[in-house]
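Appendix B. Raw example, untouched.
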Amino acid sequence: MAAPPLAVQGDIIHLNVGGTRFSTSRQTLTWVTDSFFSSMLSGRISTLKDETGAIFIDRDPKLFSVVLSFLRTKEIDLQSVDLHALRHEAEFYGISPLVRRLVLCEDLNHASCGDVLFHGYLGPPLAPAPEGGVLDKRHSQSISSLDLGASTETSRPGTVLRLPDTASYRTHSRNSSVDLRVSHTHSRQSSLDLRNRTHSRNSSLDQRHSRNSSLDLKNSAAVSNCVDPLRVTLVRGHHNWICVAYPHFVCCFRMKDSTGWYLIWTSPYMDSVVERIAINAKVLNPSQDNINNKMVAVALCSLIRLWSISDDGECREIGTFNLNVSVDSLFFIGSQLVALSQTGKVGVWHAMTQHWQIQDVVPITSYDTAGSFLLLGCNNGSIYYIDMQKFPLRMKDNDLLVTELYRDPSNDMVTALSVYLTPKTSISGNWIEIAYGTSAGTVRVIVQHPETVGHGPQLFQTFTVHRSPVTKVMLSEKNLVSVCSEYNHVRTWSVTRFRGMISTQPGSTPLASFKIVSLEEMDPHVSYSAGNDFGPFGEQDDQQVFVQKVVPETDQLFVRLSSTGQRVCVIQSVDSSTISAFCVHECEGSSRMGSRPRRYLFTGHSNGSIQMWDLTTAIDIMNKADQPSSHSSPLPGGPTASELVKVLDQCDLINSRGSTPCVSPSPSMMLAPGFLQGLHFSRSKGIPPGVWSGGGAQPGDIPHLEGATADTRFQITRF
């Protein structure tokens, strides 16, 4: 009679796990029914054997030893063990008693009602029916799939709900740094394919990605031909109101001292996709009673719809306006609604005159507001301004008065703009500080003070620390912050002031250098960049923050100080849903004595919900913490290497198509999706196709690229 195989000799089982040999009894391996081992030993799972006849299992031997120890003793030692990795192994082997213990251990640090920073939860609203009164199947499926633990009969859409403590909201790991439920239509690939945008010198460099741009991501939202009707795409705030955009409708929520947040208004269904929203207080004639009405504007490609909404939710549509080109920015300045197109059009609606005005200007690459002024940075190197209080001023031809304020000495494209009004401004009205960045990577500070009135702003400082186009700049009371397109590389300086005005002694001194890596969404139908602008957020006389969203499909945000990059906190969705849009907004304080405004982070999610996070508390906790000494290691900022790997594990990086590189994802007007639509670029000799040389451009030139389409992506390069 033949002897039994070496792997199974009676009740002794010999295993080779990842090259490490183990021997145990059949009873030990199989006392958990329906496990990997019971299926393997019964023959339901095919096995491989090594040269000695031991059953080979290609898994981590260190983690297997912990699993085997639990099978032997029904006890577990969690010292020096990664709970997430061990739970993953326990789930692979099907050891359900161990999985239940590990889930509970992980849940000790995670609650369905969030941590101390979690402030509230607004359930998704009911989507309005399209014209004709029939929701399509996608609407019905989305609404029916949202189980928030409260019936529609007992809870009103938009009210704050308590989340049920069920496993239905948990992903593969509740305290994982990523949401693993990424794909709706295809499975997640295990390998990452880095998109190369640089000209590699050899094949070994094909896996690197361009330092002058972030990565393109292929995910379910980008490849899907249809838009989830309840996916939040934009969030904006004004006073104690927030306006939330979904693909085909808009909602407004209002906060009251006694009742908290509640849904106050839902727009009609709109056939076109909502691309921009704006909300502000409506300023009417003093003789009119409803001066507290809110104004809500929505941009649908070139069309703009404007509503007036009262505090009790009554709505009146003001009208529909046409900019004739795609609206790239939509915002209010006082009572004026302003729409900008990067092709060079400014549209203004004035609440007092009820007049809509369109003005052609030079192609716009950046903008900022200061009081009643709108400042425009343009591709000819000039900064222009429009005083909205004097609208319309030029009565003979009914044009806006667009005045050139300053021209860059090198005629470089003004790609980022920031205006700081000093305390002196309110007294003299003539002290204004402006910081701007250019396509060449230069950052300049210009100052206009009373002594130079009539001569224009004077150049104060120039920084040439960036080698890529500047996408953001922010001048505040204490800091100057600039961001370039190289992985959103940030440079910051400390600003010295004397009596509130910027000082030449010692001037601006270097403070920090860090990166806000944010990988872009490649879906042209969703306003991803507008809804996921990373900042900086906050008043210019207060601590400002960046909000870092590393990948599009994630349930986690890193909040960091804009001055040093230090981590303030990490926000993670309480229901593990994907964060699809966010904004930072300061709500007014309560009417009660001594109440102060508080800053909140509002996150919109793929399931239609809104979650609120208390950033005022987060910053207070960080400020109270003991600061390390100067010789200590750098303060933590964005994701660590291990956190970044976990975040990247949920997405797929796609290969470059052809030779056309992709521009970095930036909320800046220059680098935002659609910036080059409508513009034409010309190829220069010796320059690869799809790359524009800006070095020889003359002021006012509009370059041309033959064969470019609306979806063509470019990399702006200086030669």
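End of appendix B.
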